[in-house]
Prior knowledge:
alpha+beta; three-stranded antiparallel β-sheet
Amino acid sequence: MAQSVYKVIELVGTSTKSWEDAAKSAVETAAKSLKDLRIAEVVEMDMQVDKDKVVSFRTRIKVSFKYKK
């Protein structure tokens, strides 16, 4: 059986709509330059607040992709 190696990186996506859109943005942006994405795990979610109103959502994710030698 062939062995595989995966690299894991951490990304932060932002959105003015939702945490889900922020996570989706991070994955879709990463997919433009990384190949063979496998798993995206939400690590943390937070919001930016300005004048008592939420102005943006941030989602920190870990993304794994197959490492090619």
